[in-house]
Design goal:
With 448 residues, the protein is mainly α. It has three domains: 215 residues, HUPs (Rossmann fold, 3-Layer(aba) Sandwich), CATH 3.40.50; 45 residues; 97 residues, Orthogonal Bundle (Arc Repressor Mutant, subunit A). It has a three-stranded parallel sheet. Strands 4-5-8 form a three-stranded antiparallel sheet. The protein starts with a strand and ends with a helix.
């Protein structure tokens, strides 16, 4: 088996494209096949080196390595021209000066369902002759047999008048030369397939097998786009998702895996993946479900591995202690710093939280009592910190939260933090007392 992923580098790799790449990779790895990477960069204005690098970067991040390539379509112009001349000489291709208006008039005269047939000329665009009779058919591995009546197909333009070839011709020649056995791509390419099959037929070459994947939709049933959240692989990475979780989740989108068997690494996915199980119905990409997947993968990482990933993600060092007290509370890497950044950068400034928790209703007095108890705590461990703060609540006959929240706002600057006992112990006695003292001083200034 030889499969290929052939993106056009006109921007970031979208999630649908990532799923196509992943399915091809899984097929190759699960069948001891070859995964070919081809860059279809004939759109010279949009196919920039930066966009090419975005594609390669996304594939590397997803751990989808390729066996051959990247092959750049733009570097195969000589081969495309050679095949074009071959077909012109054989009579399977002719030149035509027909314009879009000529095509419109032809269909008015012969019926809108009748495929355009041009008149041969000595110059103009290159058109491939479509047989008058019969059908162009193929057995789609996902959708079954798909048929196109030849009489309804236009003689397609396969090259411009200057000889520069168009997409469907270049793709067929490239697939033939790369000995691609299976083409797995999105269903938006179904209409391109008969044109490519006709090129193979004109060349007397067997075509590859085809499989057209359903498009991805958002939870609202509409085609996946930015309105549903992250739309590209780079956006998922920036949002703090793990590549293992992204691979796992998008592999399951319409692939027919049992609901109880949804946590797989790449090797397991490759062993289990079958094209025949892929649904022909649109699959739903739900970022909330991806977050759930990501949380599960994240918690399976060791503290050391998670610390390394968070240090790389944040660009900070010395995070192990903070990782230990947050790993059960975060679902993405991006959620880590907003939760625990106060430990390293100092308290946030949330005046509303300060006023509500410390600046009124006896909050400062409770905080002072907590400060006195923490000053006496020895050793300054999570267990002893908890005992000290709960002791204050018991002495005051208050609910624990009435004691914990003033301490949290004093050390974090907001009402959000990891566990209060773990946070205080991580900060240490001196830093905790210093922050509480500053909060108390602010409360006294507020009263004045």
């Amino acid at each position: 088996m030889r499969v290929r992923f052939a993106p056009s580098p006109t921007g970031a790799l979208h999630i649908g494209g990532a799923r196509t790449a992943l399915y091809n990779w899984l097929l190759a790895r699960g069948r001891s096949g070859t995964f070919v990477l081809r860059i279809e960069d004939t759109d010279r204005e949009r196919s920039t080196p930066e966009n090419v690098e975005q594609i390669l970067d996304a594939l590397r991040w997803l751990k989808l390595d390729w066996d051959e390539g990247p092959i750049f379509q733009s570097q195969r112009q000589g081969r495309h021209a050679e095949v074009l001349e071959q077909l012109l000489a054989s009579g399977r291709v002719y030149r035509s000066e027909a314009t879009a208006e000529d095509v419109r008039r032809y269909k008015e005269q012969h019926g809108s369902d009748r495929g355009f047939r041009g008149t041969e000329a000595t110059r103009g665009a290159f058109r491939l002759r479509v047989p008058e009779e019969g059908e162009t058919t193929f057995d789609d591995a996902i959708r079954g047999t798909i048929r196109f009546a030849n009489s309804s197909l236009d003689d397609p333009v396969i090259a411009r008048a200057d000889g520069s070839v168009l997409y469907n011709f270049a793709v067929a020649v490239d697939d033939l030369d790369a000995a691609v056995t299976d083409v797995v791509r999105g269903e938006d390419h179904i209409s391109n397939t008969p044109k490519q099959l006709l090129v193979f037929e004109a060349l007397g070459a067997p075509p590859p097998r085809y499989a057209h994947l359903p498009l991805l939709h958002g939870p609202d049933g509409r085609k996946l786009s930015k309105r549903h959240g992250a739309a590209s692989v780079q956006e998922l990475r920036a949002a703090g998702y793990l590549p293992e979780a992204v691979d796992n989740y998008i592999a399951l989108l319409g692939a027919g895996f049992a609901a109880a068997e949804e946590h797989f690494d790449l090797d397991e996915l490759a062993a289990r993946f079958r094209l025949a199980r892929v649904s022909k119905n649109p699959a739903v990409f739900d970022e909330q479900k991806l977050r759930h997947f990501n949380g599960r993968w994240l918690r399976e990482l060791s503290v050391e591995e998670l610390t390394a990933r968070l240090e790389e993600f944040t660009g900070r060092e010395g995070l192990r202690g903070a990782v230990e007290i947050t790993r059960e509370k975060i679902q993405t890497l991006a959620e880590f710093w907003p939760l625990v950044g106060f430990v390293f950068d100092g308290p946030a400034d949330d005046p509303a939280a300060f006023e509500r928790v410390i600046g009124s209703d006896g909050g400062a007095e409770t905080l002072q009592a907590a400060r006195d108890a923490l000053a006496r705590t020895e050793p300054f461990t999570v267990e002893q910190v908890e005992a000290a703060l709960r002791g204050v609540a018991e002495q005051q006959g208050a609910k624990p939260g009435r004691v914990f929240q003033p301490v949290r706002v004093a050390i974090a600057g907001s009402t959000v933090s990891p566990g209060i006992f773990e946070s205080v112990a991580l900060l240490g006695r001196d830093e905790t007392l210093s922050r509480i003292d500053r909060a108390l001083a602010r409360a006294r200034m507020h009263v004045r």
